[in-house]
Specification:
Elements lengths: L1 E13 L5 E2 L2 E2 L5 E2 L7 H14 L4 H4 L12 H14 L3 E10 L9 H11 L7 E6 L5 H4 L3 E11 L3
Parallel strand pairs: 5-6
Antiparallel strand pairs: 1-4, 1-7, 2-3, 5-7
This protein binds ligand L45E5XJ5 and 2C-methyl-D-erythritol 2,4-cyclodiphosphate.
The site of ligand L45E5XJ5 has 7 residues, from strand 6.
Length: 159
C-alpha cells in the first residue's frame, strides 16, 4: 500500500530567537517565533507524515497550549510522529521538501537538513530531498517577515 501526505507551515521572524530549520541552527540576525523551536521545515514534514496516515496535524498531537511543548525540539516531535508511523508498519518511500525564504541562504545547510530528516524518519539520505527558493522579494517571505515550508511524503506498507 502507498499513502501520500502533504504539509505546509509558516513561522514569523522575531528578534532574539534561534533560526532552526530542518534541525540546523542557522546563524542569522533573527530567528523564528513559535511555541516550540519553530522549525518550520520539520513541522511541514511532520504534518505530511500525519496527513499520509490520516492522523490530523501537529497542532492536534502537540497543542500549542501545552507547556510541555514550550521551546520543544522539533526533531523530537518528528521522531514521535515517525514512531506512530512505525507502529502502523509504514516505511518511508521518499520525502520532498521546499523552504521558501528570501534569506538566510539554505544551500550550505541542505545536506545537514537532509541527514536530520532521514535520521528522524528511519530512512537513508537518498530518500529525502530538500530544496530552497526565494519568492523573488514578493509577499511575506520576500519582505523577510517569515519563512514557509512545504513537504510531500510517500509512505509504503506491505499488505
Ligand atoms: N533561502 C534560499 C533561497 C534560495 N536558495 C538557493 O538559491 C537558488 C536560487 O533561488 P531562486 O529563488 O532565485 O530561484 C535556489 O535554487 C536555491 O538553491 C537558497 O540556498 N536559500
Ligand atoms: C509545534 C507546535 C507545538 O506546540 O508549536 P509551534 O512552534 O507554534 O508550531 P506550529 O507550526 O504553529 O504548530 C503546532 C504547535 O502545536
Amino acid at each position: 500500500m502507498i499513502r501520500v501526505g502533504q504539509g505546509f507551515d509558516v513561522h514569523a521572524f522575531a528578534e532574539g530567537r534561534k533560526c532552526i530549520i530542518g534541525g540546523v541552527d542557522i546563524p542569522f540576525e533573527k530567528g523564528l517565533l513559535g511555541h516550540s523551536d519553530a522549525d518550520v521545515l520539520l513541522h511541514a514534514v511532520a504534518d505530511a507524515v500525519l496527513g499520509a496516515m490520516g492522523l490530523g496535524d501537529i497542532g492536534k498531537h502537540f497543542p500549542d497550549t501545552d507547556p510541555a511543548f514550550k521551546d520543544a525540539d522539533s526533531m523530537k516531535l518528528l521522531e514521535h510522529v515517525w514512531g506512530l508511523a512505525r507502529e502502523r508498519g509504514y516505511s518511508l518511500g521518499n520525502a520532498d521538501c521546499t523552504v521558501i525564504a528570501q534569506r538566510p541562504k539554505m544551500a550550505p545547510h541542505i545536506e545537514s537538513m537532509v541527514a536530520n530528516i532521514a535520521r528522524a524518519l528511519g530512512a537513508e539520505p537518498s530518500q529525502v530531498n530538500v530544496k530552497a527558493t526565494t519568492s523573488e522579494k514578493l509577499g511575506f517571505t520576500g519582505r523577510e517577515e517569515g519563512i514557509a515550508a512545504m513537504a510531500t511524503v510517500c509512505l509504503t506498507k506491505l499488505p
